[in-house]
Amino acid sequence: MITPSFGLTASERVLPKLALDFTTASLDSRITFTRTTGASNPATYVNSDGVITAATNNQPRFDYDPVTLACKGLLIEESRVNLCTYSAELISGWSAFATSRTANASVSPDNTNNAVKLVSNTATSSAHQNYQIGKTITNGSAYTASCYMKAAECSVGIINHYDTGAGNIRTYFNLSNGTVGTVGAGVTASIFNAGNGWYRCVATRTVASTSGGVSIEFSNADNVNTTIIAIGSGVYIYGAQYELGAFATSYIPTTSAALTRNADVAVMTG
Predict the structure, then answer these.
(1) How far apart (Å, rounded) are the C-alpha atoms in residues 202 and 6?
(2) Which tens digits make up the pLDDT trace of 165-213?
(3) Which of 115, 118, 113, 88 is nearest to 216 (CA)?
(4) Other CB atoms closer than 10 Å to residue 140's CB: what's the count?
(5) Cα–Cα 20 to 30 A to 240, which of 44, 45, 73, 113?
(6) Percent with pLDDT over 70 in the chain
């Protein structure tokens, strides 16, 4: 109810003509919602169980907090492309350095046993990397790299936002307490609790060339990327994304090719 500042009787008070509350996880009948979704145009959201799940064609995505399970409202997103291929498998199409990768090593945020474990495979001081670079990008534009990460024997995750103009730009994330550590030059970073020990780590920066990509790395200390890590020690990862834009959007799963999530369109009539 809206109460005017000047004196009116209770019966004369102004009531709202329209109230839309999307946190009820329902769509007003006057709203028409569309988004073309299929195998080549996937879209995901966090459902009422706190699990990342695939949306169907033209399905409104009511997104939930993965920890509190409270409905956050209706997802209305622009179209984005995930340039990372094999975004969940994180082995095919990815290169590793001083790192071994084990598929299906833990339950991921989509509640299936498909998370990858990255572990050290050397007793020497090294950067421990799983990377996908050589992407065609637009010089001078903001790109956002993100990945879901979970502590195992190591508790520091790293997103290395790489391009051939600037080189390696690393940002560190504490996977034990869910905080951002040392932030790379020109990077805007954030971390989000995805539940069950998982965090979505996000790093955005303006690139300085036409070729770049992302490296997902781990360490045993903040702001230390070249280090000795006991063989077999590492972190869990899932859902890598590299997209043109100044912020992260909902996860876009890919396999052998970069894929596009189409824009959400909600139109009210009547």
Answers:
(1) 48
(2) 999 999 999 999 999 999 999 999 999 999 999 999 999 999 999 999 9
(3) 118
(4) 11
(5) 73
(6) 93
Q: 106-125 burial, b if ≥16 CB within 10 A, otherwise e?
A: bbbbbeeebbbbbbbbeeee
What token pair was written down for 142? 């903001």
Does 97 score more than 80 pLDDT?
yes
Q: Are 212 and 199 in contact (CB under 8 A)?
A: no
Q: Are 52 and 181 in contact (CB under 8 A)?
A: no
Percentages helix, strand, coil for the chain (3-state, rounded to 5) are: 0, 45, 50
Q: Which amino acid is at 265?
A: V
